[in-house]
Amino acid sequence: MENVPIKRRRGRPPKNQSASYQDTRQVLIRVGLAALTEKGYSYTGLDEILRVANIPKGSFYHYFDNKEAFGQTLIEAYGHFFASKLERSLSDNSRTPLARIQAFVEDAKAGMEKFDYRRGCLIGNLGQEMVALPESFRSLLCNTFRDWESRIARVLTEAQVAGEMPDHLLPEPMAQFFWIGWEGAVLRAKLEKSSQPLDQFAEGFMALVRGS
Fold first, then answer.
1. What single string gives the DSSP state of each residue in 24-87?
2. Based on CB atoms within 10 Å of each CB, which residue in 66, 99, 177, 178 is the most buried?
3. Full-prediction pTM beyond 0.90?
4. Residue 132 DSSP class
5. How far apart are CA 173 and CA 152, in angstroms?
6. Where are the domains of the chain?
7. Which segments of 94-204 are extended strands (E)?
8. Residue 133 per-residue DSSP state
9. 68-210 classified as CATH 3.40.50.1820
10. Residue 77 has pLDDT above 90, yes or no
């Protein structure tokens, strides 16, 4: 029987190269996350990302259909990354509930200091750019914030049970307030290259939820 070559989808590597495919795709995601947390989507070109990742320009479309699809992947990847970062602090049952939130604040401060306040929150950065971004990003960004809010709300509910937060305060609205204020504090910390805005917000939020 004559061997008929198998037609493959344009731009996709064969299955036996799947491990290499995933490795290169992860490099693109990692470099893309670093670039977008510093400069945002609109001011980050694919050429820059490919140069840092040391990947030929034509190869990009082996892994993503276009820049919009790449951005969608980065939003999802950052959401999962940051949720894991949150849970390292929020799931630490050796601490009281409010102490877990404060532990997240300290961890986030250390992360910003590590990169000299050049990097902020990718989700917050893109939210500020939304007027110039693909509309497909909107629901992804909103859903990411809702996920983070649910995690803080869970811990605030535990704080009420533990007597750390008054019963008249509702965990869900307070969790929304936390992220609205936190994203503003991160922006100010980048502007001033200082953790002072983060500390100031955290102190105010803790005073509010304690009812003091």
1. HHHHHHHHHHHHHHHH-STT--HHHHHHHHT--GGGHHHH-SSHHHHHHHHHHHHHHHHHHHHH
2. 178
3. no
4. G
5. 10
6. 68-210
7. none
8. S
9. no
10. yes
